[in-house]
Structure formats: structure tokens, C-alpha cells
């Protein structure tokens, strides 16, 4: 199948590459990059993506996603199906879907890290009609291990924000647990072995060990700035229903501290460094007073 793909960033690059390896013809647009994965054809304008019956976007924010759908795909033929796979929130996805016109819209954000995208083991949460889901599933299966039909358009984005709300809480909990273990005189590697095999040993805990204990060598799976953006979107959804999420607000506050400390591009496990910095400053103030 001919597929248009917008956004060759950290997640988009391996996902487009997997589509090509699965035998699809992929036209990719990303103005920030001068190259494309093997087997993927880079095009010079977003409008070229409209030549395909299906297009996908893995873009960093709502503004670029809106621009692609409203302007880049303006020349698409009726029945063109665009899949929003970036995390932009359900409100925007539903707004774009309600515009009408020749472009149909579905959303299928994914849960998983860059290494999981490379291996094709991420999970897609798909907001679409049953017919759209049936049409998209063979395409999504080339990039993802599981495709869950969450309901109508926008529901996939809502599910992604809910997942990342839990993820941020787990991430914050691991960091705070490490600080408690450290304060109690425990070797952190030994404590992490306990944590990984305990009742709190979620899969995330296992595969983030290096990121927490040896961040310099671990690389970046999900940057602080990205999870902060997602929590902001989750809190927007909650605010629309007058829901208070104190744990999420606390996690957002620590992520803000991490960004202020220049850690925005570092892995989200660096909330541990932000918490250490926060506690150092608090202790310094107490000493001065």
C-alpha cells in the first residue's frame, strides 16, 4: 500500500522504516531532516502525502498536526484516511475529525519507548469507526505488536493520556523510592533488585533500571519535556470535567523543576536528579534560616 508519513523524529523514524520493511511504499515528509530510513522516499512537501490513500502523522504537538491536516492534506481525494499517532489530546483530534471534507480522521497513539518502536513491540490505541479500524489494522500491525480499538475517534488519544498519567506516577514513585532507600543506607542496585521483583515490580520498573541508576549510559527513551507535555494535556482533560488529580499535579511540578534545571531533553527518569536538587535547595534554605 502507498502510505504517507509525516514526522521522522525519535518514534516516527523506526515506525516508517518498519512500514517499508513490511512491503509498503512510504512517502515521508519532515522538513527538519534531510534523510529518510532505508526504503522510505523523502518528499519535499506535505502535499505529496495526499497522493496516498492513507497517511500517518507522528508529530510533536497539536499545532503541527493541525497544519498538516488543514493545509498539507487539503488536496487529498475523498476517502483519504489520516491517522494521528502523535500525542496531541482528544479535543484536537475530535475537532479535526468534525471538520468534514475529503479527509477522514482516526487516531492511534502508541505506548512504548524508542527501542520498542524499533522492535515493533509498542501498543496502538485506536480511535476509529469499526470499518476504519479494519482498514488500518494491517498497516498498524507492521509497526505495533497490539492494536486496541478503544472506540470512536479521539478515544485513542484519551487512552494515551490516561496511560501516561499512570506512567508518570510510577516514574515519580520509583524516584522517590530510590531516595528513601538511599536515606536508609541501602545500596541502590540492591534496592532496585528488590523493587523489580516486588509487588511494585511493573514492567516499566524493570526496563528503566539503567535510566535511573546509570543515566549517562542509558540514552533517552522518553524525554522529560515530552511527558510534561502529555501531563499538561491530561490535566486539561481532567479540568474539563472538574476533576482534581493531585498526584498528577505533583508529578508535573517535579517535571517542571527538571526542565528548569536544564533536563528537558533528558530521559524522564531524571526526575530523580530534579528531586535531589529540590531537596538540596530546601535543606540549604533551612541551614541559612
Automatic annotation (TrEMBL):
<dbReference type="InterPro" id="IPR036291">
    <property type="entry name" value="NAD(P)-bd_dom_sf"/>
</dbReference>
<feature type="domain" description="6-phosphogluconate dehydrogenase NADP-binding">
    <location>
        <begin position="3"/>
        <end position="150"/>
    </location>
</feature>
<dbReference type="Pfam" id="PF14833">
    <property type="entry name" value="NAD_binding_11"/>
</dbReference>
<dbReference type="InterPro" id="IPR015815">
    <property type="entry name" value="HIBADH-related"/>
</dbReference>
<dbReference type="InterPro" id="IPR029154">
    <property type="entry name" value="HIBADH-like_NADP-bd"/>
</dbReference>
<feature type="active site">
    <location>
        <position position="160"/>
    </location>
</feature>
<dbReference type="GO" id="GO:0050661">
    <property type="term" value="F:NADP binding"/>
</dbReference>
<dbReference type="InterPro" id="IPR013328">
    <property type="entry name" value="6PGD_dom2"/>
</dbReference>
<dbReference type="Pfam" id="PF03446">
    <property type="entry name" value="NAD_binding_2"/>
</dbReference>
<dbReference type="InterPro" id="IPR006115">
    <property type="entry name" value="6PGDH_NADP-bd"/>
</dbReference>
<keyword id="KW-0560">Oxidoreductase</keyword>
<keyword id="KW-0520">NAD</keyword>
<comment type="similarity">
    <text>Belongs to the HIBADH-related family.</text>
</comment>
<feature type="domain" description="3-hydroxyisobutyrate dehydrogenase-like NAD-binding">
    <location>
        <begin position="154"/>
        <end position="274"/>
    </location>
</feature>
<dbReference type="InterPro" id="IPR008927">
    <property type="entry name" value="6-PGluconate_DH-like_C_sf"/>
</dbReference>
<dbReference type="GO" id="GO:0016491">
    <property type="term" value="F:oxidoreductase activity"/>
</dbReference>
<dbReference type="GO" id="GO:0051287">
    <property type="term" value="F:NAD binding"/>
</dbReference>
<protein>
    <submittedName>
        <fullName>3-hydroxyisobutyrate dehydrogenase/2-hydroxy-3-oxopropionate reductase</fullName>
    </submittedName>
</protein>
